[in-house]
TrEMBL record:
Entry superkingdom: Bacteria
Upper taxonomic lineage: Bacteria, Pseudomonadati, Pseudomonadota, Alphaproteobacteria, Rhodobacterales
Keywords noted in UniProt: Signal
Protein name: DUF5333 domain-containing protein
Signal sequence range: 1-18
Length: 137
């Protein structure tokens, strides 16, 4: 197969794949566990960094992680518009933030008792969780 035929075949394959991915049934973005769990973990780390004076959010790692979630959603066939709407509009954002608050409470954080957020954050760092990886002393 000559070079121009290979390029044409590759282009046809890429076009067919892209069209298939776009037309393929996919669950709503809020039902993709890798995306939602990543956003929930990020929200927990952010809240700990906000409430605990001795821990901070690792901003560059947080941004890099959020960009990786966006890239994963794009690979799964979601458009930039779908992703932006998902992370910035009402019900889904509120739902994920609610889950993050519930998980923080389950981990031992008590609203108004900010040292409990520090305790949770330090435990996450010590355990090497994704939440802990987004925090720094």
């Amino acid at each position: 197969m000559n070079r121009s035929c290979r390029i044409a075949a590759l282009a046809a394959w890429a076009w067919a794949w892209a069209g298939g991915a776009a037309g393929q049934e996919r669950p709503p973005l809020g039902e993709v566990p890798s995306i939602t769990e990543g956003l929930i973990d990020t929200a927990i780390a952010y809240e700990i960094g906000r409430r605990c004076d001795t821990l901070d959010g690792r901003r560059l790692q947080g941004i890099a992680f959020l960009l990786s979630l966006r890239a994963e959603a794009r690979r799964l066939g979601y458009s930039a518009e779908e992703i932006d709407a998902f992370v910035s509009e009402g019900p889904e954002k509120e739902r994920l933030e609610g889950i993050a608050r519930e998980r923080l409470r389950a981990l031992g954080a008590v609203e108004g008792e900010w040292e409990t957020y520090c305790t949770v954050g330090r435990a996450q760092v010590a355990e090497g969780t994704r939440i802990g990886g987004l925090l720094t002393d």
